[in-house]
Design brief:
It is a single chain. The chain folds into two domains: 18-67, no CATH class; 71-162, no CATH class. The protein contains eight helices and no strands. The protein has helices at residues 18-40, 44-50, 56-67, 71-84, 93-109, 116-125, 132-140, 147-164. Helix 4 runs antiparallel to helix 5 and helix 5 (93-109) packs antiparallel against helix 8. It comes from Sesamum latifolium. Residues 166-185 are annotated as: Disordered.
Length: 185
Amino acid sequence: GYVLDKPLPTALPERSSPEERATFNKWLEDNRKVRSIILASMTNEIQKQYDRLEDVPSIMLRMKDVYAVPGRHIRYAATKAFFGTKMAEGSSVQSHGVKILSLVEKLEDLKAGLDNDTYIDVILQSLPPSYDPLIINYNMNGLEKSIHELINMLVQYETTTHKSEPAALVGEASTSKAKDKGARR
């Protein structure tokens, strides 16, 4: 097997072995097939721009030059999304954590150069005011957590704070009145 990632040789040397000639002919045929598929997937106008290129690597290189988004723009968009992410009051911290982890992984793949403390600071800043007690506790006690540990801590906090809050029952108002305890006989 091989990958069509290098320009095709224009011809074989005169003293090529039968095996080299067979490989060369297979390479030419595969290039023709792949080139046809690539060109067929393009609109007619774009096809005209690439039709003069004979080999797949040349087409792919030209397409990359024309259509590729520079890495700098991708990193900018990812950092903007990360620093701009805010959790809405009452929404799930677990969903927020999944979104944050996804953005952190993307930033690390892009080699954004942020350290763990910066990630933690941004995550804490993305939380709504109901998480202020946890944030104060985190900072006052000098806790050092990984991103995963922090998100687990946030999920536990959400679980305990929702359990301790009185449950609001939704339904019709009762028409009965409370009995006067002093009127017992």
